[in-house]
Amino acid sequence: MIERLRSGDPEAWTEFIARYRRLIYSAIHRANERFGAGWDEITMEEVFEDVLYKLLRHNGRALAAWEGRCRFETWVYRIVRNACVDRLRKASRRNAREVTTEHDPDRGEREALPMEEGARRDLRISLEQAISRSLDDREAIAIRLIYFEGFTYREVAERLGTTIGAMSGVVYRALKKLKADGGLVAAGKRE
Amino acid sequence: MGSGCPTGETLVLHVEGELDERERDAIARHLSECPVCAGAVASLTRLTGLLRRASERDRSGPGVCPRGEAAAAYADGSLGPEESRAFEHHLAGCQACLAEVADLWRLEGPQTIDVPETVVGRVLERLNAGGARAAIRWAERSLTLVTGFADHLGEALATPEPVPAAARAGGAEVNLRWSGEGTVCHLRLRVEAGGPTVTGLLTDAEGLPERGLSVGLRSEAGDRGPESTDAGGRFGPWTLATGDNAITLRGVGVERGIELLLAIEGDGNED
Lengths: 191, 271
Hints:
The complex is a heterodimer.
Chain A: H1 2-6, H2 10-34, H3 41-60, H4 72-101, H5 107-111, H6 117-134, H7 137-148, H8 153-159, H9 164-180, H10 182-190
Chain B: H1 8-15, H2 21-33, H3 35-53, H4 70-75, H5 81-93, H6 95-107, H7 117-128, E1 136-137, E2 143-151, E3 161-168, E4 171-178, E5 184-191, E6 197-204, E7 214-219, E8 222-228, E9 234-239, E10 243-250, E11 258-265
C-alpha cells in the first residue's frame, strides 16, 4: 500500500483511510483524556484531519519515513501523539498570552495551585538529580511512570513484565533511597 | 518496625490506595496502635505527594535521545533484550522519552470510535487540492479564507460557494452561500497578522435574518462565544488572531440553506 501511495494512486488514500480511521480517531479520543485537553468533537475532527493530511500528502512521503523498527500501527500512534502534543503546545502558548492580556475568570484558581512554578522547577531539578544519583534503571522508570505519568502499580508491573508485589518492592526501595538522598528532602523543605 | 508490623512494600501499597478493603482495614487498625508504622506512612505520604507535585508534564530530557523509532519500538516490544536494556538505561534518566513511551501505551487500544464521513471527505478534498486550502484570497490583504465547509448529523453539505471578496477602504467583505440539509457549519479564516475584527450577518436563502443561531470563534487569541445571532442575524465584532480562526455555526435554521456575510475591519497588518 505504501508503494501505491508513493506512486500517487488516489485509491490508496481511500484504502489507507478506511483501514486506519478508527485507530486514529480512537487514539485522538484517548489522547484528549490523557492530556486533559478538554477538546470538543470538532477539535478532535480537526486533529484527525491534520494527522491524515500530514501522513498522506506528497504521495505519502511521511509514510515512507517509517523505518520498520517498530510496528506500523505504533508508528501511526506516534504520529497521532505528536500531532496532539503540537496542538496542545499551541493552545498553551495561547493561554499564556490570555493570562497577561485578558480578563481571565479562572485566574484565581490557577494562582491557587499548590506550588509556584519556580519552586516546582527547583524541586524537579533536585528530584532529577536524586533519581540519577540514587536509583537504578528499573527503580527510576517505575518512579517516573507512577508519579510523573500517572500509571498504576498494576499497569507498570504489566508493562515491565513483573508482578504487582515485586513492583511495590521496587518502588519501596526507590522511595527509601530518595528519602535518604539529602538533596530532595532539602528541596522539599524549601517548598 | 516490629515483627508484627506490615512490610514496607505493603505500606507503600497502602499509601497509594492499591490494597483491597480487607487489607486496608487491617493496616488502618495497625496504624492506630503502632506509632512507628504510622510515622513511616506519614513520611511515605509526604514523599509521594512531593513527587506527584513535581511531576507536571515536563518534557525536557538530558543528553542526546535515541533518534526516530526507538521509543516506539521499545513501547511495542520490538526491541531485542539487549537493545531494550540499553534503552531502559536512557529512559531512567530521560523524562521526555519516557513520556513518549507512556503516551504510546496510553494511546493504543481498541478501535471503537469512528470519525464522521464528512471529515474523511474533507481530508480527501484537501489532498486533492494539493494542500492548497485557500478558497479565496484577495489582493493587498493578508487575509485568506482557508476552508469553507459544512458538516452535520451525517451527510455533507455542499462546500460554501464564495463570492469574491470586495476589498474596500480599511476592510473587506466576503459573502458565503451554501445550501443543503444540516445543522452545523464551520469555516476558517487564516490571518497573516492579527488585528482585524470580523462581524457576521447570517441570512437564509430568502435573505431573511437567521436569529438565534449559535456562533463561536476559536483562534489562537482565545475563544469567543458561542453566542446567538441577534434579531438581525448578526454576531461579532470579534478580533481575529494571527493564524487560523475557526468559526462554527450551529442551529436548526441552517437546514434551509444559509448565507453568511463577513465584514472584516482593519488592514490585517497590525499586531
